[in-house]
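Lab notebook: predicted structure, single chain.

Context: the supervisor wants predicted structures on file for every construct in the current expression panel, including those that have not yet been purified. This is the next one on the list. No modifications to the sequence; it matches the entry in the shared construct table.
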Amino acid sequence: MALTIAGRIRRYDVAEDTPLPARPRVPGVDRLRAGPTVLVHEELLDTPDGTLAGEDGVLATHGAALRRTFDGATTLAVEVPHRGGHLVLVDPDQDGEVTDEVTDALQALLRGREVDVVAARAVRRSPVDVLDPGGRVLATFDDDVVGSATQGTTTTSSREWSVTSDDAELLEALDDEIQAAGGRPVRHGAAAGGRTGDLAATLSTALSAQVSILVGWDPFVRCDVPDSVHRMRVAARTLRSIVQVYAPLLEPGAAKEVSAILKGLGRALASARDAEVLRESLDARLADLPGGAEGAVADLVPRKARRRLRRTRAANYDKAHRALLSAMAGPAHWADLERIERFAREVPARRDASPDDAAQGAVTSTLAGLGRAQVDVITDLVEQADAETDDDRRLELLHDVRKEAKRLRYAVVAVQDENGTELDPELSDLVAEAHAVQKRLGTHRDSVMLQEHLLDCARRARKKGEDTFAYGLLLTGEIEHGERALRRARKRLARLTAGSPTV
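Prediction complete. Output recorded below exactly as produced.
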């Protein structure tokens, strides 16, 4: 059986004499309920050869953990970094063994390496349930006193807090309370290295952050966690966008190689993501009908039609996801990841393209200039689309506009966010406009996909002798939805090409 989500967890280091947090002042939380103290034995598993990825092993270097707990029952949990904490994945049928499902989920991190116990901990755990007014458990807070921890010959003593919940927003709210009480969030993973200030280091910082995101989402994609394909695809696209927009600063051969790897991965992710979007769009359109998904208009879509639409979209997604996992399997995929990581770590900057002045101002100016050059690419495509008389060709050009606008935003925002600097205020305004254009053109593209899906299902229904009125009803509404998005996109395109700021 595949791994399933068991919850979300955040961990904190804390001084041994720190009092427990008071009752959280969080909406929906009514009271706390302390449970009996229990003794727990924990084992951390990782690659035992520290030379592979730092002294803590491969998983720890990526911020992940493989934790086996003995507390009357034996549980093996995979903890993978996720939005400020960790998502906990377990195999419901396993008994603490490192199964094929576990190693498969972590293969992008382990890459064929064996795992073994690298640390053992004796923990005295005092659990506290966080309850709502009805007595329902919203979260569990654990106050752990670690009597001993061993890794090789090292012995330590510490105190830790952790909070577990299915509710990501609640964890975020509790985080403020826990930090105010003295909890220090546990930080995992290797920080991006490199010199500060020069061009290669600036790009390396942005690239390395995205590589961590890309690899971090890999286990979630394998476990089919909702939204994981989208997140991993964004990371792949951001990496490729950085390489493409700033290509004049990079050695052509190395940039071309890593761009091709990212393009192949992006295509595999795109098919699964498109099928995922189709699934989401159909539910949204039914809900958008007058009266909602259960209203009188929706009743005109018979159950047989709904079943056909849902069955087809589910089959499309399953097929695309299987193909994606096949593309992400084995040594070839691991080698591609290692090439991407090496490129990010040792950015092959062209000596003749780097600014003479290595100061941050010169680097920023150089990168901003390439960002503005990408705006010119978008402007040229918009002018071609405006002059095109063939409708199909115009739509193709607008699709290219969307991709280039996304490339601009990903490349500029990644460099700015990870380096804590703004390349150029005017460029930032244009990036904001590009984002607005991208979103509206993306809505139009998603609508076109749904229209094609509705037509395909209608043809199949007609061959079966079924009534196709419902498909026509949905298609009519979807055509209007797509046209509305296209009209809105054209208004924003005019502002982007004129260079006007966001208002």
